[in-house]
Structures are given as structure tokens and as C-alpha cells.
Amino acid sequence: MLRLIAALVMLVTPLTAEEIVLGLSHDEVAITATFNGSDVMIFGAVKRDAPAPSGGPLEVIITLSGPMEPVLVRRKERVLGIWANTDAVEVDEAPSFYAVATSAPMREVLSEVEDLRYGISIPRVIRSVGAPSEVVNAETFTDALIRIRAAAGLYQVLDSQVDMEEETLFRGQITLPAALTEGNYSAHIYLTRDGMVVDDYETDIAVFKAGLERWLYEMSRNQPFWYGIMSLAIAISAGWLASAVFRIFQR
Amino acid sequence: MQIYLPIAEVSVNAFLLLGLGGLVGILSGMFGVGGGFLMTPLLFFIGIPPPVAVATEAVQIVASSFSGVLAHLRRKSVDLKMGTVLLVGGLIGAAVGVVLFNYLKSLGQVDLLVKLCYVVFLGIIGGLMFVESLRAIRRSKVVGAPPVRRKHGLVHALPLKMKFRVSGLYISVIPPLIVGLLVGILAAIMGVGGGFIMVPAMIYLLGMPTKVVIGTSLFQIIFVTAFTTMLHATTNFTVDIVLAVLLLVGGVIGAQIGTRIGVKMKAEQLRILLALMVLLVCGKLALDLLLVPSELYSLGAGGGH
User: Fold this and answer.
1) Residue B202: CB partners within 8 Å, gap ≥ 6?
2) Taking each helix axis from N to C terminus, what angle separates B14-31 and B267-290, rounded to the nearest 10 degrees?
């Protein structure tokens, strides 16, 4: 059910000495009724016109990001002995899924400045313009968002989990969880040397519902009245059927 | 076996859902409650988003109540006339309840209010039923005679009297209408069929015999929850049919088994069990509100402003 398409794309940019040549195990993920997560293999090679430049070793960062969406983070506080939601902060843009895999520990691979520029690590991907002024410690809300999503397997940090051979061939695997939302996922590959990004490359992976899942979803949105009637009809007939079957057994 | 739910957008174990449906179905058939007050928190617990859980639960209640009511109809333990009167009140109440629910939602804090509603009502009803059924059991043991018939001063004094032959009552239609209305409002706010409020109300306020109460309660729950299902499906798009089917397959089978268990049990035993279950759920919800939660933060859909 998962189509295997190997797409090799060449980049021709004469300015950079080292370029990425990329392959993907598949460029689309179909969510069907029995969908139980999926592994995406991202592999590639580094193309050089000249011998590898001197300096630190060449490293790779692979990120896979789901669609960006606003998220409302609420905090509970004790009010009159009861735990109730009090403060809320809206995070303007957070990916529904985000994985970042590196070929060596993150701190060695990427400098703070480059992270800020490209937005690679999880805290840098999440964009929050500003919290309401009456909320103190607004950054704890973003931390909570990362913590909750990481616990659900939606945010993954895969330090040193990209294989890099001879500073030329690299390979990484990212596991998409079963509870996945639809949309265009983007895979981003960065080559770094001494913490600086040398080259980057981006490609899309389409994640969509397929088959019965697609049909039911569309119907619930486009013909909600008939979808409701259908649900009730199924409920009533199932109730009747069970009753009838049990009557036969009783005799 | 994992299955992906198209509307809830989560992947869950199909057998877990079948089992949950079956368990709640048994309780539904035994006590004449839809089981929503148990199932909805259970669905939250396994990770179904709350709006989907509440809406989908309504579909399952329709199925298990229909299955249960057929068994009761054959046994002639459904007071259709009383059920219809209650239903008229119930539908008006549900409409009022939905308006009220949306108003509370605009104020925020709707989750907390729903939970407080649960704790207060489950606590009162469970406590009253428990004490009353203990007393009834003790009375029948000591004297060995049937319990004394209760007096209903106010219920008998009101105008518009009607004969409810199956229940053996000759009372005004105003009390059942009001009971239906109030239960309808609560049902819509709390996202349940309202059987756990309706059953005690029929026994203690209207003085109906326990055996008739269950079938009659199921009868009116079918229509009230069918109404809420349509409201959810057309306004919030949160009814997950795949989730509903899995729950109701277990539910309808459970309801049949439950109805048969219920018939074999004594009314007092049935009531004391229901009371205990109601108190248990109440205690769990109260603890959730009072104890320090393990995660102080929660995520919701943004873009509201």
C-alpha cells in the first residue's frame, strides 16, 4: 500500500563546493483503515567538484516537518481547591509533527546562529509572536507544548542517528506515528561543516487519507446531514440485529 | 489490531474498543442507562479527542438503547405513553441545553463546568439511591413484607391527569414533562443520554415501578441521543462512524446480555449496584478535580482569535 518511489534529484549550483543528491524510500504516505505508522528512509550522497575542503568533518541534519498550525496551550491552576484552566497562550505556528535527526550530537553539528537562521531545532521551529502581557513565564507554555508532543511521539530528536560514511553517503530513518494528521510534510536536509550550513535541500512527502477513510471524511464534511442519518441507520440496524440474533439463541 | 479512525485522526486497538463497548453495553441493558457517563470518560482516557468522544458516544447509545428497548418491548416492560410524555419534555430540554452549552463555551471553562455537573449530580443521585436501597433491603429482610407504597402528595394534586396503565399510575402530565425537560438540559450539557438521572427521577419523583422504568428510560434515550447525534454531525462534524461501529458492535451484544441479567435480579440489588457505580464514577471525577494533575498544561486547537 505504500508506494515505493525512488527519486534522485540533482542540484546544479556552481557556487557551493558540496551538494546534496537525495533519495527517499517513498514520497507519499497513504493513511488507510489499518494504518499503523510508517518508516520513511531518507538517503543520499554528497557530490563534489573538488576534493573535500579542510576543516571539521562534514555532518548531516535531516528534518521532517508536518503542516504548521496554531495551538492553544492552557495551564491549570488551583482555584478554590479545584484545578481549573486559567492562563492560555496561543502559539502562532507549531508543526503537527517534527523530527530532527543528526549525524553527530546537535551541539557539534550546528551553531546557535545557524539554528536561528534556518530554524532547525524544535524550539526554533515553533513560532510564538507574543503572549498576552498578563501571562508570566510565557516560555513555559512553549516548553509544555514540546514536552506533551514529545511524549506522544510527535516531536522526535534523533541525535547521532544518521549514518554518514566517508563524508559522502548518508542514510537516516524517521518513524511516523500511527496518529498522523493529513497534509504536506516537508523533508529538509542540511549539510554542515564546523557548525555552518554548507548546503540544504528540501522535498515534500504527501500524507493523505485513502480509500474508505477518505470517503467517510469527505462525506462527514460535505454531506453532514446524510452522514448523521447514515450513522443513525447503522446504529438502529445493529441494535435490531443483535436483538434478533439473541432471540434465536434463546429458543 | 490497530485501526485508524478517520474523524478522530488517531489509531487505536480495535479489540479494546469492542471490549469497552461490550462492558458499557452490559451496564446499559442492566440499569436502563445509556452508559455515556461511563464511556465518555473512558474514551478520553484512551486518547480520543473530547469533542469526537462526546459526539460519537451518542451514536453508540442509540444502538445499545435500541437493542435494549426491543428486549423490553417483548417483555411488555415499556410504558410507551409515559415515555412519549418524557420525550416531549426531553427534546425541548435538549434544545435549550445545546443553546446553554454554546453560551458556556463562549465563556470558556466549559470542561470544568461539565465535570462539576457530573460530580454534583452523580454524587447526589448515587448517594440518595444507595441510602434508599440499603433501607429497602433491610426492610424486606426484617419484616419480610413488600415495601410500603410511597405517598405522592404534590404529584397527585396537579391538574391534567392522565392514566399510565403500564406503570399503574394516574398522575398529572406536568411532573413527567418537567422531569423530561430538566434531564434533557443536563443531558445536552453533559453529553450523555441522561439515563442515570432519568431512572432515579422516575423511581423516586414519579413513583414508577423499577421494572418498567428501565425500558421506558431506554425508549426515550433513543430519541434524545438521535437528536444530539444529528446536531453534532451537522454543526461540529465530530461523529466518527468507524469508532461508533466498533463501540456499538460490542455495545448491542452487551445490552442483550445485560437485559437478561437485569431481569433475573431483584429491584433493590439492581438499584444498589447502580448507586455504587454512579458513586464510583463521581469519586474518580472528584479526585481529578482535587488532586494535583500530572501535566498542568493541555493543548487545544488555536486560531480562535
Assistant:
1) B86, B179, B208, B213, B216, B217
2) 130
CB proximity list for B137: less than 8 A, separation 6 or greater: B268, B269, B272
Q: In this complex, which of B230, B242, B256 lies closest to A242 when CB atoms are compared?
A: B256
pTM: predicted TM-score of the whole model, two decimal places: 0.73
Q: Which residue has the cell 460530580?
A: B119
Give the CA distances from residue B108 to residues A86, B72, B103, B104, B113, in Å, rounded to whole numbers and listed in that order: 10, 41, 9, 6, 9
Which residue is associated with the grid cell 434508599? B132
Q: What is residue A135's three-state secondary structure?
A: coil
Bridge partners (DSSP) listed for residue A95: A68
CA of A5 to nearest chain B CA: how many angstroms apart? Answer: 24
In the predicted model, what is the mean pLDDT of residues A135-153?
83
Give residue-wise pLDDT tens across range A73-115: 888 888 887 887 777 888 888 898 999 999 888 888 888 888 8
The single-letter code of the amino acid at A18 is: E
Residue A183 to chain B, least CA–CA distance (Å): 12
Residue A10 predicted with pLDDT over 70: no
Is B93:B180 a contact under the CB 8 Å cutoff?
A: yes
Residue range B76-97, pLDDT digits in tens: 888 888 889 888 998 898 888 8
Taking CA–CA distances from A215, the nearest residue in chain B reads B6
The predicted pLDDT at position A98 comes to 92
Quote the cell numbers at residue B253.
451484544
Whole-Å CA distances, B175 to A166, A221, B85: 84, 41, 10
Which of B120, B80, B135 shows the shortest CA–CA distance to B271? B135
Contacts of B296 in chain A (CB under 8 A): 75-77, 144
10 Å CB burial of residue B122 (0-12, 13-18, 19+) is: buried
Q: Which three cell numbers stand for residue A101?
A: 535527526
Long-range contact pairs involving B168-173 (C-beta distance under 8 Å, separation at least 24): B168/B209, B169/B82, B169/B206, B169/B207, B169/B208, B171/B206, B171/B207, B173/B85
Q: Please tell me the predicted confidence (pLDDT) of residue B34.
A: 66
Report yes or no for ipTM above 0.95: no
Residue tagged 468522544 (cell numbers): B53
Which positions in chain A touch B10 (Cβ < 8 Å)?
Answer: 178-179
Q: Give the residue among B218, B269, B268 at the shortest CA–CA distance from B72.
A: B218
Closest CA to B260 of B71, B20, B70, B19: B71
Are the beta carbons of A232 and B226 separated by less than 8 Å? yes
User: Quick one: which H or E segment has residue A200?
Assistant: strand A196-209
Whether B303 and A209 lie within 8 Å, measured CB to CB:
no
Bridge partner list, B299: A73
Q: Does A89 touch chain B (CB under 8 A)?
A: no
